[in-house]
Amino acid sequence: MKRETFFLKAVVVLMGLPVVALCIFIIPEIAAFLVELVPSLTYLQYPFMIGLYASAGIYFVALHQVFKLLGYIDMDLAFSDLTVQVLKNIKLCAAAIGGLFILFMPLIFMMGDLDDAPGLVLIGLIIIFACMVIAVFAAVLQKLLQNAIAIKQENDYTIWGAKNGNNHQYR
């Protein structure tokens, strides 16, 4: 394992630890807090909690994809279709998390309004914005990598053809 990617893999693992802590300690309290604020919405406690756990699960899938991407870089497969697929998966994960938070934004707004805590709404908007930035960035990287792979394949074919005497087009 290369030293540069080892550091990045350690960072990816460390990025997952706070989310594990949120899932264990904070998400159940947030769902209970929703019921405490609005007792008439008791039926939304578990769907809200399931949605937050689903977004955490998608986040872990994205972290796993980043871990795979770093593994491909270790194996010198950075310019391959495997990395394009990983970037596509990261893009989809980011869009899915953003979509889930867009769905739950009315509940977050209601909680922030009733508790007089506008910071909740701001946190929700920041999460949505960050997810969309990550999705767009992954899409741009995916397209650039596809173009680089196409250029590399074209160059490889040109070099291979010239080595095997198929260079009649260059005379």
Please tell me about this protein's structure.
With 171 residues, this protein is mainly alpha-helical. The protein contains four helices and no strands. The protein has helices spanning 3-37, 45-74, 81-114, 118-163. Helix 2 (45-74) runs antiparallel to helix 3 (81-114) and helix 3 (81-114) runs antiparallel to helix 4 (118-163). The chain is elongated. The termini are far apart. The mean pLDDT is 91.
Summarize the structure.
This protein has 4 helices and no strands.
Keywords:
171 residues, mainly alpha, elongated
Specify the biggest β-sheet.
none
Class based on secondary structure composition and strand pairing: mainly alpha
Question: What value does the Rg take, in angstroms?
Answer: 22 Å
Percentage of residues in helical conformation: over 70%
**What gap, in angstroms, lies between the N and C termini?**
46 Å
Strand count: 0
Q: What pattern of helices and strands is seen along the backbone?
A: HHHH
The quaternary state of the protein chains shown equals: single chain
Low-confidence stretches: none
Number of helices: 4
Mean pLDDT: 91
Beta-strand residue fraction: under 5%
User: Judging from the principal axes of the Cα atoms, what is the shape?
Assistant: elongated
Layout: helices, strands, pairs:
Elements: H1 3-37, H2 45-74, H3 81-114, H4 118-163
